[in-house]
Design goal:
Elements (H helix, E strand, L loop, with lengths): L2 H16 L1 H4 L10 H21 L1 H15 L8 H41 L2 H26 L9 E7 L4 H20 L3 E9 L5 E9 L3 H5 L4 E8 L8 E12 L14 E6 L15 E6 L4 E5 L5 H24 L4 H8 L6 E6 L5 E4 L5 E2 L2 H5 L4 H13 L10
Helix pairs in contact: 3-4, 3-5, 3-6, 4-5, 5-6
Length: 406
């Protein structure tokens, strides 16, 4: 806001509240323009979602408690506990502060627009509307950041891709998904490592596991777990017919040694095999790759990223601990049984998203209704709108009736 306009704004607001002659003529607020009201509605929806997620009154009380604890010198007798308190305090302070700041800036911008309307100054109105538009974008971005406050959201993420039934078609689709998530990670500046890889029979992959390293990697990527469906004219069909393929994605957080996960060695089945990779990469002449099966849960993890069997075993054990931890998180978050079914049954009726390349182009999320008409961009990693909507839905619990198109 330019200085001279700010002075007029402050002066005009002062007159409204201090001069009886003026205030008598403004008993009712002007009606906000439709464009401005749309921005306001968007900001208020974002702030309401964050308040609900934080459980606002409880969060404010908790921040007061944490501030009091920080003032207690005895807190620092236990550095690990002190760091946990400071981390929670920083998160709450940032989230609460953002909501309050955006709310205040919105109120100021609304008043600025209303005063511009009252004075017939289109330049002031335009500037106020621009401020509201910028605040709406900021509120949406900050909303997503605030929603990434789960127990493991800040962690790195393991992301598994598994081809469904259908041979080469599904295996090629699985490789497209692997590339999509690699590109998404790269767009965010994350480091993406290939931990495990099983090549397809003729093309593509049977399965692959990525380790995505970066702040909030798991918080974002966790919304991608489920079955993904592709509709296209097959490049492997000489008759150029349309094919439907399915692959599943499963995401779980990487965890450190501070989280205690008890695993009974008697519950494990360990296999070794020769590493493999596309184009002969990562191929060893020794059995360096490791596969571990956790018999009680049926969870299977594997690693072949290193030439050392010892290192691959350690990586696979870390993946197993992460999978068991993620399963416990899922129970706490009351994940529905249908989401588990979406992982185990890779086929029609369980997909979370459809990618249609022919006869038209569209990517549709069947949980939130978010649609993109640019599948090329989506397959190149443009997933943020889908992830943001899915994160919001986890808070609101709202179900959207979305038809899956053929």
């Amino acid at each position: 806001m330019h200085l001279y306009k700010l002075r007029r704004f402050v002066k005009r607001r002062s007159l409204l509240f201090c001069d009886p002659a003026i205030s008598a003529g403004v008993g009712e607020k002007p009606v906000m323009r439709a464009e401005g009201q749309a921005h306001i509605d968007r900001i208020e929806r974002a702030l309401a979602l964050v308040r609900k997620f934080l459980d606002w009154d409880r969060a404010v009380r908790r921040l007061d408690e944490l501030n009091a604890r920080v003032e207690d010198p005895k807190l620092w007798d236990d550095p690990k506990q002190a760091e946990a308190v400071m981390r929670e305090r920083r998160r709450l302070e940032a989230s609460i502060g953002t909501v309050k700041q955006i709310g205040q800036e919105m109120a100021d911008a609304v008043e600025f627009v209303e005063l511009g309307d009252a004075e017939g100054d289109d330049a002031i109105v335009a500037e106020g509307l621009d401020t509201l538009a910028a605040l709406a974008n900021r509120a949406d971005a900050d909303k997503v950041q605030a929603l990434l406050a789960g127990e493991a959201d800040a962690n790195n993420a393991f992301l598994e891709v598994h081809a469904g039934a259908g041979g080469t078609e599904s295996q090629d689709w699985a490789e497209m998904l692997q590339r999509m998530y690699t590109r998404w990670g790269e767009r965010h500046g994350y480091k993406v490592e290939l931990v495990d890889y099983h090549a397809g029979e003729a093309a593509g992959i049977k399965s692959a596991t990525l380790l995505i390293k970066g702040e909030n990697a798991y918080g974002y990527a966790k919304t991608e777990s489920g079955v993904h469906r592709l509709v296209r004219i097959s490049p492997y069909d000489s008759s150029a017919r349309r094919h439907t393929s399915f692959s599943s994605v499963w995401v779980y957080p990487e965890i450190d040694d501070n989280i205690d996960i008890e695993i009974n060695p008697a519950d494990l089945k360990m296999d070794t095999y020769r590493a493999s990779g596309a184009g002969g990469q990562h191929v060893n002449t020794t059995d360096s790759a490791v596969r571990i099966t956790h018999i009680p849960s049926g969870i299977i993890v594997a690693s072949q990223s290193d030439r050392s069997q010892h290192k691959n075993r350690a990586t696979a054990m870390g993946m197993l601990r992460a999978r068991l931890y993620e399963a416990e998180l899922a129970k706490r978050e009351a994940v529905t049984s249908s989401e588990y079914a979406a992982k185990t049954e890779i086929g029609w009726g369980h997909q979370i998203r459809s990618y249609v390349l022919q006869p038209y182009q569209q990517v549709k999320d069947l949980r939130t209704g978010v649609v993109s008409t640019n599948p090329t961009d989506v397959l190149d990693g443009a997933l943020d709108p889908f992830m943001a909507a899915a994160l919001s839905q986890r808070v609101t619990g709202e179900k959207v009736a979305v038809a899956d198109d053929d």
